[in-house]
């Protein structure tokens, strides 16, 4: 089956990202290895530009615009990390950025978006309000809409994190990523299964935002209705382009509780000195869960830590 992106598209995205995105390091932690019962390799996307993996897809998509399209600016809606990524990418190309953000978005993320030079349009924290506000921005500006995850160029860009991880640690048995809209896990699965057909790819979700797990269970796309989780980067529903990849190439989605997310985030900070946000901690919590620990094999597991944009005045412990 043809998906929104393939390995060639991801490799082309990697070429575009050269000199613009950081090649983030891979970290290890003996304490977390012992707790997980296997060797873990953490792809540190919290050290990426903008503090999250999102810059990869944002820059690839912005770089792919024609000069005429880019001149009118770019627009998106996001609760934070993709908003920052688009603002950074637009600034790098020298074009305007318009970002619709829900009023519930963390203040630290909104301040960062504005600091990168983007115009922020606030809206109520519902998808309907986001879409209405975005429609107004597009009508006013003629900007190119770049969605946070359901776009071929965005998915290809996000896949470059896994491309780098497998170049640095080629003998992985599995990769785990958190799932929000699905851009990261889709790009990861496309790359990983193309390079290592036997590799196993898993997603991680909070119980309070479990549309990917429900979709996998039902066999069709189940939209998120009322997500509620500390992992604010994982509130989005899967997209029409990301769902087929998850359906076909992701083995399973591991669900974790809110207290497990907080505990995993604290462990990452204290034991591994990895300053991740709750959304990234979801993947660590999944690795430490009884459900994942019970899975046989997989002595070497890669983990893509999605971001580290934390409001230090509102830590969850």
What would you say this structure looks like, in words?
By secondary structure, the chain is α/β, with parallel strands linked by helices. The protein has 2 domains: 7-53 and 151-305, Rossmann fold (3-Layer(aba) Sandwich), CATH 3.40.50.1100; 55-145, Rossmann fold, CATH 3.40.50.1100. The protein has helices at 7-17, 30-36, 54-64, 67-71, 81-93, 107-115, 127-141, 152-168, 183-195, 211-218, 242-249, 258-272, 278-288, 290-293, and strands at residues 26-27, 39-44, 74-77, 97-102, 119-123, 144-145, 174-178, 200-206, 252-256, 300-305. The strands form 2 sheets. It has a 6-stranded mixed beta sheet with strand order 1-2-10-7-8-9, with helices on both faces. A 4-stranded parallel beta sheet has the order 5-4-3-6, with helices on both faces. It is globular and about 55 Å long. The protein starts with 6 loop residues before the first helix and ends in a 12-residue tail after the last strand.
């Amino acid at each position: 089956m043809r998906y929104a992106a393939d390995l060639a598209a991801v490799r082309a995205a990697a070429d575009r990202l050269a000199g613009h995105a950081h090649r983030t390091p891979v970290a290890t932690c003996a304490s977390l290895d012992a707790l997980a019962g296997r060797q873990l390799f953490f792809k540190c996307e919290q050290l990426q530009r903008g503090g999250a993996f999102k810059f990869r897809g944002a820059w690839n998509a912005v770089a792919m615009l024609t000069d005429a399209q880019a001149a009118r600016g770019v627009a998106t809606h996001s609760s934070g990390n993709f908003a920052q990524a688009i603002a950074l990418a637009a600034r790098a190309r020298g074009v305007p950025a318009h970002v619709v953000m829900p009023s519930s978005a963390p203040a630290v993320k909104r301040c960062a978006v504005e600091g990168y030079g983007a115009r922020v349009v606030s809206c109520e924290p519902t998808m309907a309000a986001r879409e209405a506000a975005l429609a107004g921005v597009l009508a006013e500006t003629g900007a190119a809409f770049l969605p946070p995850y359901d776009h071929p160029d965005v998915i290809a860009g996000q896949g470059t994190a896994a491309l780098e991880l497998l170049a640095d640690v080629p003998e992985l048995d599995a990769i785990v990523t958190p799932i929000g809209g699905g851009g990261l896990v889709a790009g990861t699965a496309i790359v990983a299964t193309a390079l290592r057909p036997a590799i196993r790819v898993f997603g991680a979700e909070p119980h309070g935002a479990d549309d990917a797990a429900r979709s996998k269970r039902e066999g069709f796309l189940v939209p998120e209705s009322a997500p509620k989780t500390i992992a604010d980067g994982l509130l989005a529903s899967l997209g029409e382009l990301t769902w087929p990849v998850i359906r076909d190439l992701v083995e399973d989605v591991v669900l974790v509780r809110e207290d497990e997310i907080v505990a995993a985030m604290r462990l990452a900070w204290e034991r591994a000195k990895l300053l991740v946000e709750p959304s990234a901690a979801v993947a660590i919590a999944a690795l430490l869960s009884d459900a994942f620990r019970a899975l046989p094999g997989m002595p070497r597991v890669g983990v893509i830590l999605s971001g580290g944009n934390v409001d230090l005045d509102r830590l969850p412990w």
